[in-house]
Each structure stands twice: as C-alpha cells, then as structure tokens.
Automatic annotation (TrEMBL):
Organism of this sequence: Longibacter salinarum
Lineage of the organism: Bacteria, Pseudomonadati, Rhodothermota, Rhodothermia, Rhodothermales
Gene that produces this protein: dcd
MF annotations from Gene Ontology: dCTP deaminase activity; nucleotide binding
Broad EC category: hydrolase
One record GO biological process: dUTP biosynthetic process
InterPro entries from the UniProt entry: dCTP_deaminase (IPR011962), dUTPase-like_sf (IPR036157), dUTPase_trimeric (IPR033704)
CDD domains the UniProt entry points to: trimeric_dUTPase
The name this protein goes by in its record: dCTP deaminase
Keyword list, A-Z: Hydrolase, Nucleotide metabolism, Nucleotide-binding
Known pathway: Pyrimidine metabolism; dUMP biosynthesis; dUMP from dCTP (dUTP route): step 1/2
Family recorded in the similarity comment: Belongs to the dCTP deaminase family.
Length: 201
C-alpha cells in the first residue's frame, strides 16, 4: 500500500528514513516541501553539475561519462538552466529506505507547468544516500530552479520484504553523498537486476 503521513513520520523519526525531516508542508513564498498527506516533498540542495558541451565531447555516453562536460556550480539561491539543456542536483535529504519499502519520485507540478522536467528513478528497498536529481529544461529560454526549495514528491510503497535488497546486492549507488555521476559495475554480480535505479538517485 501507499504510506500515509503518519506512517512516513514514524519511519522518518524512528528509523531515520528521511534526514533532515520536515514534519508538515512549508509553503509560504517557496516551492513547497515537507510531509504531505501521502508523500514527502524533497528539496534540492545548493550544488549542481551543469551540462556544458566542449570540444572533448562529441557524444554523451552513459557508460563513459566525461566529467569535463559536467561543470560544478554552487549557489545560495537559484540556478539558471540553459535552453534545451539539463543539470544534475541532489536532495537536501538523506534517505534510508527500509527493506520493505520502495519509493517513486515525481516532479512537482509547479516546475512541470513551466517546462522543467524532473526525473528520478525509484528508491529501492535497502538503498540509502542523497538522491541525484536530473532536471531538464525543455523550453527555448533559460529556466530557473530554486535551491533549498521543493523539487519532487516522494511516494512510499510498502510491500513484502524481497529476497535480495539493494543493500544485499551492494548496488553501485549505495551510500552516495552529493551528486553522483553515472557509474558502471566493474564485475557482474548475481541478482544485479534493477541496478539502474537509486538505486539512482
């Protein structure tokens, strides 16, 4: 089932599922964040990686990403995403997913209605870390994203504990902190299915 606010609160406070945890919605003069009736609106932090094409990059290869194409940027207020480009950010919150809970992350409507697309893959049972957030500007104009404000809603789904959790298979994005660029596993491990999720972030 999908977890309501009181179950999310209990997991956040008793099991540190969300840290820091904002108990309730912060809405005034900001893009909202915090606990809602059936989810949690996470914030985006002040650090970003901006996609900047250069002479070294003729193609974006997710197996061999060239870090020179992802320029580091930090701000106290906002970032401007160039037209038809994208940036990587990360959540303010550090998530510790219980072994029987999976989370689905959806972009907030305020950004979606402005042509700003937020993409995050599921947070698997047993995964923990900062969520790496992919933000695309689908407009022909620069687009503004506000740091330390809401960026996406997290929905938590409870189910039976799987035989192999993300922690059990030692996923490549486990315990990630800050913004994490694409990684490839060096060795194929048993039960490695689903390894492209957060599992991302």
């Amino acid at each position: 089932m999908i977890l309501p606010d009181h179950h999310i609160r209990q997991l956040a406070t008793d099991a540190s599922m969300i840290d820091p945890f904002v108990d309730g919605q912060v809405r005034e003069d900001v893009i909202s964040y915090g606990l809602s009736s059936f989810g949690y609106d996470m914030r985006i932090a002040t650090e970003f990686r901006v996609f900047t094409p250069n002479i070294h990059n003729s193609v974006v290869d997710p197996k061999r990403i060239d870090e020179r194409a992802m320029v580091e940027y930090e701000t106290d207020d906002h970032i401007l995403i160039p037209p038809n480009s994208y940036v990587l950010g990360r959540s303010v919150e550090y998530f510790r997913m219980p072994p029987d809970v999976l989370a689905i992350v959806l972009g907030k409507s305020t950004y979606a209605r402005s042509g700003i697309i937020v993409n995050v893959t599921p947070l698997e049972p047993g995964w923990e870390g900062h969520v790496t957030i992919e933000i695309s500007n689908a407009t022909p104009l620069p687009a503004k994203v506000y740091a330390n404000e809401g960026i996406a809603q997290v929905l938590f789904l409870h189910g039976e504990t799987p035989e192999v959790s993300y922690a059990d298979k030692k996923g490549k994005y486990q315990h990630q902190r800050g913004i994490t660029l694409p990684r490839m596993d060096n060795v194929q491990k048993p039960h490695a299915r689903g390894g492209d999720t957060q599992s991302t972030g």
